[in-house]
Amino acid sequence: MNNLFKILLVILSMCKFAHAQNTFNITTTFGVDVAGNVIPSDSGYYINITSGQPIIPRHDILCFYDTLGNLKWSKVYGDSLEYINDYSIYQDSAKNFTMGAGYYSSITNKNGMCLRRVSNIGDTIWFKTYAPDTS
């Protein structure tokens, strides 16, 4: 037991703890919301949200909030026959975003992943789905 305590102490001493500051709280009217990722910018925050019903439809939403937490714009992606569950968002040097999500389509009845590429104002550049080969 003493060795376990020493190992735990060493692991904890090697960890770095981050303390985030909550500067504003956001409540949206999109439905069942889960804010997956937040990307800060000089003029506010881009937030990637999974929203909608617990089952189909469930949409992917990209929102931009100013530094005071006021919603400036939002774009809803997907349709009523899709279930999209956000996992990640990345912004490149050109300020465009790539969003990754879990994906289900009731039309094809296939589960998989999807990637969506959008501009810095949320306009879709491309959208691709990836389903596992079940053959």
Structure commentary:
The structure is a single chain. With 135 residues, this protein is mainly beta. It is 10% helix and 52% strand. It is built from one helix and eight strands, in the order αββββββββ. The chain has one helix at 2-14, and strands spanning 32-41, 44-52, 58-66, 71-77, 82-91, 97-105, 110-118, 124-130. A four-stranded antiparallel β-sheet has the order 1-2-3-4, with no helix packed on it. The chain has a four-stranded antiparallel β-sheet with strand order 5-6-7-8, with no helix packed on it. β7 (110-118) and β8 form a beta hairpin. The radius of gyration is 19 Å and the shape is globular.
Short description:
The chain has 135 residues and is mainly beta. The chain has one helix at 2-14; strands spanning 32-41, 44-52, 58-66, 71-77, 82-91, 97-105, 110-118, 124-130.
Lay out the secondary structure.
Elements (H helix, E strand, L loop, with lengths): L1 H13 L17 E10 L2 E9 L5 E9 L4 E7 L4 E10 L5 E9 L4 E9 L5 E7 L5
Antiparallel strand pairs: 1-2, 2-3, 3-4, 5-6, 6-7, 7-8
Which keywords apply here?
135 residues; mainly beta; four-stranded antiparallel sheet; 1 helix; 52% strand; globular
If you compute it from the alpha carbons, what radius of gyration comes out, rounded to the nearest whole angstrom?
19 Å
Shape field: globular
- Give the integer mean of the pLDDT values: 74
Flag low-confidence runs. Answer: 14-22
Largest sheet: 4 strands, antiparallel
Structural class of the secondary structure composition?
mainly beta
Into which percent range does the helicity of residues fall?
under 10%
The portion of residues forming beta strands comes to over 45%
Task: Give the helix tally.
Answer: 1
User: Could you spell the SSE succession in H and E letters?
Assistant: HEEEEEEEE
Major beta sheet, strand line-up: 1-2-3-4
Terminal-residue CA separation: 51 Å
Number of strands: 8
